[in-house]
Amino acid sequence: MPTGKETKSLGLLALAGLQPYQPKPDEEYMNEPQTEHFRLLLKAWRDQLRQEVDRTVTHMKDEAANFPDPVDRAAQEEEFSLELRTRDRERKLIKKIEKTLKRIEEDDFGFCDQCGIEIGIRRLEARPTADLCIDCKTMAEIKEKQLQG
After folding, report:
1. What is the pLDDT of residue 45?
2. From the first residue on, what is the mean pLDDT of each consecutive set of 10 residues in the chain (149 residues)?
3. Which of 24, 29, 120, 132 lies most in the core, judged by the most C-beta atoms within 10 Å?
4. Does 21 fall in a domain?
5. How many Cβ atoms are within 10 Å of 44's Cβ, its own excluded?
6. Which residues are CB-neighbours of 94 under 8 A, at least 6 positions away?
7. The domain that contains 101 carries what CATH number?
8. How many CB atoms are located within 10 Å of the residue 83 CB?
9. pLDDT at position 10, please?
């Protein structure tokens, strides 16, 4: 049974109409077919997020009402607040996707920002915007936990 991250990754691949990338033996890392695979995946993900933003705007315009009952008004405001918070997270994610697409164009995609080693196809399938290898990410999370107390 797939984990939550694997399910999300499979959902992204299905959204883009892609299968997980299967590297061939002795295939060079981040060659043209691999970068094209991730470019398509990231663009499909970005487009889906933009459609969600459009749906939210339409929904909020259509559903906005001035309810006389304060409880109804409060419930609607809470619903809108949650939607806007979600869209704000998605807006930040769109920026991260754009940054990753730029890295693909600059041939800097798929390598760790800290140590420079390959991030790996499987990790990038699970988190296409990853910019750290699993070891550097683990260390960053440990440091973050230590700083928080």
Report:
1. 94
2. 52 74 92 95 94 82 75 83 89 96 96 96 95 96 91
3. 132
4. no
5. 17
6. 46, 49, 50
7. 1.20.120.910
8. 17
9. 58
Question: Domain for residue 58, yes or no?
Answer: yes
The rounded distance, in Å, linking the Cα atoms of 78 and 76 is 5
Q: Is 76 a domain residue?
A: yes
Structure tokens at 33: 């077919």
Residues belonging to the chain: 149
Stated pTM of the model: 0.79
User: Which domain range does residue 132 map to?
Assistant: 4-15+26-148
Question: What gap in Å lies between CA 42 and CA 101, rounded to an integer?
Answer: 7
**Helices 4-16 + 32-63 axis angle, to 10:** 90
Residue 20 lies in a domain: no
Please count the structural domains in the chain. Answer: 1
d(CA 21, CA 122): 8
Given a contact cutoff of 8 angstroms between Cβ atoms, the answer to whether 50 and 98 are in contact is no
Burial 109-120 (b: 16+ CB within 10 A, else e): bbbbeeeeeebb
Could you tell me the CA-to-CA distances from 46 to 43, 59, 96, 132 in Å, in that order?
5, 20, 10, 21
Q: How far is CA 24 from CA 33, 34, 121, 141, in A?
A: 11, 11, 12, 33
